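Human: If only I could read backbone structure tokens as easily as an amino acid sequence. Take your time, and here it is.
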Amino acid sequence: MVSKSDQLLIVVSILEGRHFPKRPKHMLIVEAKFDGEQLATDPVDHTDQPEFATELAWEIDRKALHQHRLQRTPIKLQCFALDPSTSARETIGYVVLDLRTAQETKQAPKWYQLLSNKYTKFKSEIQISIALETDTKAPVDSFKAKGAPPRDGKVPASLSGLDPKDIVAVLNEEGGYHQIGPAGYCTDFFIMSVTIAFATQLEQLIPCTMKLPERQPEFFFYYSLLGNDVTNEPFSDLINPNFEPERASVRIRSSIEILRVYLTLHSKLQIHLCCGDQSLGSTEIPLTGLLKKGSTEINHRPVTVEGAFTLDPPNRAKQKLAPIPAELAPTVGVSVALQREGMDAQSLIELKTQNEHEPHHSKKRVLTPIKENTHTGPQSPSESPVPPHNQSPPTKDDATESEVESLLYDKDTKLNPKAISSSVPALLAKPVTTSIASETASGQKIAVPATSHHFCFSIDLRSIHDLEVGFPINCILRYSYPFFGSAAPIMTNPPVEVRKNMEVFLPQSYCAFDFATLPHQLQDTFLRIPLLVELWHKDKMSKDLLLGIARIQLSNILSSEKTRFLGSNGEQCWRQTFSESVPIVATQGSNNRIVDLSYTVTLEDYGLVKMREIFVSDSSQGLSAVQQKPSSVPPAPCPSEIQTEPRETLEYKAALELEMWKEMQEDIFENQLNDAENKYKTLEKEFHQFKDQQSSKPEIRLQSEINLLTLEKVELERKLESATKSKLHYKQQWGRALKELARLKQREQESQMARLKKQQEELEQMRLRYLAAEEKDTVKTERQELLDIRNELNRLRQQEQKQYPDSREIASGKMDGPHGSALEEGLDDYLTRLIEERDTLMRTGVYNHEDRIISELDRQIREVLAKNNASN
């Protein structure tokens, strides 16, 4: 059920605009869309500074708001220009608002520039503010299925007049508390606190396909406590999460009966592991156990719900994660406490790291140490000094339950000895009668030597070479070995391309593992379980394909030569190194070799784990604290201790019983280990038989051949695509060449035509010159003929004058007259003009002597010559 304080309004205020063009015939309107719901402003005049002055609001609750923030749901505002005459509108631009910027405090409005602005010459902007406001409207009494309370949330008879829907948490800011229920029923004050103490195996929530930020990512836990968003301090290491336990508390005014109904209605507290805005996993803490029906425990002591809760990945990632064993499941240690206000504050373990806390409030759990500085996680006061009976080397999982037990209340054990017996071995839970003064004294230390060794195993996948397949592969290598403490896969990155007759060195291929285990178990594991290195082919055009697997026998390093070296603190350590090349064979089919892998492994033994000391408390709590200190430091003597015989002290008796219990647990563990090993060997033998049978089936061989043919097909498709692109490229080049050739041909033809025309003109000019020269010769010849004729006429005239002198004198007398002289001159001029016209026509080259006009001119010339001769 959502309380009134959880109902919010997302308010978007659209105030005004600027840098708009003036369009008198248009109106401006802004539409806002969020989560499928669309709101709009009233139309305003399309001026250079439109005044919108409109608020748009969406109803939402805090849980939905958080989901939208995680999903980065945007609020999109679109601006339109509306034509009132035709009702047509055109998009001007849009603005996208980030929901994460909305706060419950009032913020100053900002100017947002329109994206994809139609008015390219104007940088149009809109002034907008976004805020969160509490929805104060009265709830509508309408039936909603989601509002129905669960069946077990019935109101008791004493509250028969109270509706369960009215039992909500309302913040009273003046009083500094949350009120649950009507004021008349709320008579008591309570403190509710949530503590996140530790987390383990968080790396299992990260699938191989998930992309984290390139820079160092930060992780944190998030939950909502009575409508208040709470996060712890971020941390960056998922494998070894190192964060200080933090407690968040809220003050509540209510009554026990109303609180019981409220916790029934809100029965689960959801806690998320987040990276940025992305939820990697979540778990739910049941709250109904805080106030059980008929229980009055809260009147005497705080009530708690605590434990190690499994984190489940979100739905979108579940399908991408492989099944995880229960012992490797990601967990988070949470404690939820509820107490009456005014009770002794020292009854709670103060898990927040503050300087004023006493030492017993900040006890640390020591995992099986790898290095001297590994005492960073919370330690249960009751943790056993020997490995648990279900595993040989202690791991992070071994301490999960004890970490949660560390959230028990120190003072509570005086009133609840039953709680003590559930968190410590029975032999340590005996009632002890001591004075109050001895309660603060230092406990007796019992040194128990650890049998585990601190090992560091490193592997370097150096290179791959001698590729056998006929096509290049774009590969990465991947492996995992849960014995080293993590089931998360280790991969080389980025992918490298390998071709025939070449050796490729792998990037980011070195990895080192620090762990603690027994030497004989290390040898047994290395002999039984090889390291399987997978060869994956990554292709952009298809999904990743597993090509083959290399089997690395880690037991080879155990027989290599040991070299001595000094550790960081001067202790003597041993190192073994082994290198070789192993083939990577096809996963299915006839186990054909694909490529060879060269690797180097190194095993470093730092010796025994540091001495572990157990403090047995002298107080009536019966709780012990495990801390890592040098075994040579003697216990600080307490002046208040009573001098008794050493064998009669409680410390000695507890140590003796502890040793006996340790031997018994070791025997039980060895028997269980032998049974498990025998069962595992039988299963391993059956598995090898099954694998041999499967590998001999023709379907497996065909599947391997199909995989290889698929790779060849992909390669051929890539070559075909490349050839098609080359063909298109060459076709374009050929087309351009043909166009260039046609252009050159046309240019050459035009040049040839120009030269031919020029030659024809020159030839025509030469012909005209030749015709003119020939006409000139003809005219010259005719003039010579005319001259000869004239000379002949003169000669004949002289002869005639000699023969007829008297007649000439008479004729001369007649001709001497003015008329005879004028007639002779007119004939000469006419003759000259006829000859010039004929010569002019002949020089043009158009006429010849056979033309009619030339013949006519020749005839007239002869007639004039005849008349001239006759007159002489």
Observations:
- The radius of gyration is 56 Å.
- Residues 804-872 form one domain.
- The longest strand covers residues 593-608.
- Confidence is low (pLDDT under 50) at residues 138-154, 344-450, 611-643.
